[in-house]
Amino acid sequence: MSMQSTLPEQPLPPWRRAVLKVGSNLLAADGGGLTPRFAEALASFMASSHAGGRQVVLVSSGAVAAGRALLHARASAGRDLAARQAMASLGQAPMIGLWQSLSARPVAQVLLTHDDLRNRRRYLNARATLLGLLALDAVPVVNENDTVAVDELKLGDNDNLAAIVAALVDADLLLIASDVDALYTADPRRDPAATPIAQADAVTPALMAMAGGSGSIVGTGGMRTKLEAAEKAGAAGIPTALFDGRNTATVQALAQGQLRGTLIHAPHTRMQARKYWLLHAPASSGRIRIDAGAARALSHGHASLLPGGILAAEGEFQRGDLVEIIDASERRIARGLSQYAAVEVRRLAGRHSREIETLLGYSHGTEVVHRDDLANMPDRLEPAA
Q: What is the pTM of this model?
């Protein structure tokens, strides 16, 4: 549903580098194979941006939809995760081929997994690759590696992936193309009284309550994941623009610096890049439970996590893994890189730092999580599941 006549045209924030996320619903033809129908205008926008000295990183969905179309009649035979992963594998080449057919510049595929974003070294390697491709005037096309990534196929994570990529490459703007022209006060497909929202200062609980689920049979995301992405981008000081990628005039207006859609502003101050990564990169399944004294110390933002404040290590994680730190009431306190594996943390729990070498026979340092590798969680977060 579109209500373009009620949406004012507004200037986009100044930008030199942007991440553009395009959903499956803009690339699949009536739930079938890929079509250039809406992709052409988006590709033209990227080309004109490049001609103007700007850089665009593309985060594109569509691989599963393309793979399903290749299977034709057999597509309905497998709806489990393995079948969807197989369809993603089949569809990667057609999806990249579609964008290459619409671009005069070389297109480069970059597949990322949660492990690439969780591991600091691989995270920085991915950053170097993307910036290198931009320096070569190539068009980076990023996608979650659906063939092995379980969470992407369940959660429609490409919106959130786009926000992480925006921070990864120091983007000035996150652009999310959808089949809805803006964020509405309610689902416009169900509520005729729904009205579009032109601007929002931040992603609030009230704003999140307006978001619905997935609106497409080929996509796995919805407006909620787009707001989650806007919140992540905003934490890195990056504003987000939501717009209708089906409307040629709307896409053409972007090239002129004008938005017909919803602009979600970012905080004035940027979060330190490392702290941002610690808060938003996928964490391991393990957690460290701490006592009230350690929770108070960490909340001031200048303390490391020492063995004496640890109550337990839950689940499994290795040295260098990103873990969540919780208190006795299951409240998320912080996230950080553990200097010790879970089995080691269990042996160190409640002990003094000077006992580390005696207990383990070696030492990686007096802190389990150093303050430079730790980021406090926002106060509004709910208790851990």
A: 0.77
